[in-house]
Structures
1.
Amino acid sequence: MDISLTTWLLTVLGLVVLIAIDFLIGRKPHEVSVREAGVWTAVWVVLAGLFGVGLLLFAGGKAGGEFFAGYVTEKSLSVDNLFVFIVIMAKFAVPLRLQQRVLLFGVLIALVLRAAFIAAGAAVLASFSWVFFLFGAFLIYTAWKLIQEARSHGGQDEEWEENRLLKTVERRFGVADKYHDTKLFLRVNGKRVLTPLMVVMLAIGTTDVMFALDSIPAIFGLTQDPYIVFTANAFALMGLRQLYFLIGGLMKKLVHLSYGLSVILGFIGVKLVLHALHETGVHVPEISTTLSLSVIGGVLLVTTVTSLVAARRSGRDAEAAERRGDEDRVDA
């Protein structure tokens, strides 16, 4: 899809305006209610849907289909990010009223860093088609690793460790001993130091980059159009803050999510390998965007249903075990 510089600038300007509106509405630190999170999650989903419909009307079915497939994939992978975001928030003991501010700036940092990743990935793929083999193999490996991790952890929370960049920043600037409302920097004994709020924002943003290592190749497996890759990532990330508060309590019930994501990543990895073979002149079938979207949607639906059923069964078993324990204590 040939996108003019004017269209790129207008798109970026539109996204900046949406982010500014989001910031102005939530500028006052407060605890986000489920109702507020639900309304704004719906708003971001509708905006993404309208953008996708616009691509369908003005750029054709292929572009629109690739956007929706990319958006759904990035959104589902972003949900997995929320597990780690919850751990980070707990590790830094972020007050509830400041969490929405952390996520807003953390996601903004992630969006800027992902844009750089996308630009680099598009340039590499345009020059070296064999990179599709590497992306495909990496996604298949990631899918297998995701299954292994899900089985080994048995659904328990993972520990989170600060990355090297974050540790370097903390050593270089120093960190205040407590939160100071929405302030990001302070002067302590004449020295400018970071507040814990700034540190946790950097933690959210830079940690997302690690997730981008599999999500960016995944969406390039669905479309090689940088414009669609960028906009799908942008809409998926910008609604992430509200989604955090909406399904935070539901996260522990999605016990099969990792398995579903592994299937999706493996499927896209195979799609990339087939595409690479096709580019080198080997006659192999290519997976269509329609089939990709159907598989991704189907896997997410099955994963969600089986997760909720398993969580309900586990809850009933826990209640039964608790009742048996009470009866045993009474008999004793």
2.
Amino acid sequence: MPEPITGPRPTLEAVAARAGVSRATASRVVNGGAGVRAPLVDKVRQAVEELGYVPNHAARSLVTRRNGAVAVIIAEPEFRIFSDPFFEQQVRGISRELTAHDSQLVLLWVEGPADHDRIARYLGGGHVDGALAFSLHNDDELPALIDRARIPTVFGGRSLTGQALGVPYVDCDNRGGAREAVRHLVSLGRRNIAHIAGPRDLMAALDRVDGYHDVLIGADPALMVHGDFTEESGARAMAELLDRRPDVDGVFVSNDLMASGALRTLRDRGVRVPEDVAVVGFDDMASVVMSTVPALTSVHQDIEGMGRLMVKLLMRLLDGSGGPAPASVITPTALVRRASA
């Protein structure tokens, strides 16, 4: 291996000379351009490694018209983002895929409408190449605000506004997963199956409600209580259900955190799980389902994989030539049985 060049910071010209190619060829390889034969690509990459060449970001932006950064916008308060492992897993998938594409993650969260102007100014300022946004509420102005910024965007999850704007999204089969959860409870012989639903303004929660009703047509409205996807709201909802319908013998809970709270309430009330009440959650987040007592049966969705898919769709938008947007993706779900049901 040739000895590394010492002295001033290596230039692109030095890389080209070491690789035995033109400066233009070296530039195309370094900046991710196409049209360079594989052997030459290997030579340039080897020269970059040997010289310790670091591309000049400003110059690279002029060539590629890219900033090398993507905004990740979460429409939830800060305390939810850092306390809910769902967001941790999705952001981890996004971060890993962005790293593979040599792009940086810029995390933005939206506490409420007061943050909209700040987000709009940032997105419109040319700081990022595109945006990924999730946990979008149906009455939220955020999708329209992002659309006005005219940057490539992919949403995590269906939203009414997003669909109206034609923005591609990645989501799991929320309705089908809910049906499988409820059918499992029915197969166990449970007759009074309740549902602790998520927020009324999130499509994922509404789809899971629809899946519950697909199986239990005409279910007693008293068997449904809404929470906000937090553990405490699940505990409160379970207490309300037991007060309303002491004969409840099965519960499908719209996410794992609320299911964890529901199990705590059942334990505090002296109700045995699954002997008296069988419980099924949704998400199958390892940090939650394996820490509950008993271990939680849950509907699995590939949360980290969905984050990666969001980035892949966005990169297709960024690399495209103005053609139609990539199709939205619905990923499969699967019931994972444990001790709670």
3.
Amino acid sequence: MANTPAHPGGTVPGNTVQLGDGLAVSPLGFGGMALTPVYGEVDPAEALRTLHHAVDAGVSFIDTADIYGGGSNEELISQLLKQRRGEVQLATKFALVGTPTDGYTDIRGDAAYVREAVDRSLQRLGTDVIDLYYMHRRDIRVPIEETVGAMAELVQQGKVKHLGLSEVTAQELRDAAAVHPIAAVQSEWSIWSRDVERNVVPAAEDLGVGFVPYSPLGRGFLTGTVDAASLGEKDFRRNIPRFAPDAAGANQAVVEAVRSVADQLQATPAQAALAWLLAQGKRLGLPVVPIPGTRKASRIDENLGALAVHLAPAHLEALDAASDAVVGSRSADPNWVSQGRE
């Protein structure tokens, strides 16, 4: 396979996808977590250049969270927004307490915390309004109606335009949507993480809610460029069961299946994996906007190339089957994601 993508990325002016509640975003988003030291050290100057390149290339849907880098990710994105706020659909999240690298100490969904968290995020981001505000995780001690009710107040106050939920169950989504329209559900979804297809995806389709898959490339594993055995001590992936030595070795079968399809298409594994996810959204009847993250501008162009990749039925069948070979859970604690509560 050639080193350069057969389907290069490029600007996609005017090309948008409608999620729920009237929110229009670029066909691919950008996951900002990779621009903080969760997968190793990050050069802030390079990180900002990568963000600018994403917007230049047509990726206007930028996703962050208050806990990424203890708030430093929002502060980094604020530098982009100073110059290009009108070009960006901005998403951030609240509820988790702690950081990905140091560990999470709590989940808070009480109304008082919602109000405090949004003001902190607005200040760090240097903006008056957040386009999409997510509940990052469900606080099971608090009725979801209370959490979403407080979020709805933020819409009324003009601090937030649209509401989202991350890693909720189908019933939690239905309960939340009864309080206020939900624009998007964000959960891990990829060739090797398909549990959301059983309950959450059908509920989203039924309610007219868009889906925003995070880690659509299996935290890099599906690209075939990640050596699980050589991850740094502070690399967040060391805590994920399917990156453990035995599981990672077995999961190479999934990588090989993705690579095989990519070779047939003269594409890259990343493009094949993203194309599968986009096709899966069409098969299941709901808008899907993956948010792959990267530190490198060249990867943004590569990822955008997935929009031009067409998977034939035989390709889809091969990639569907690859998911059956996955070993290990996608989360160190399944109760912190929808999979553990469905």
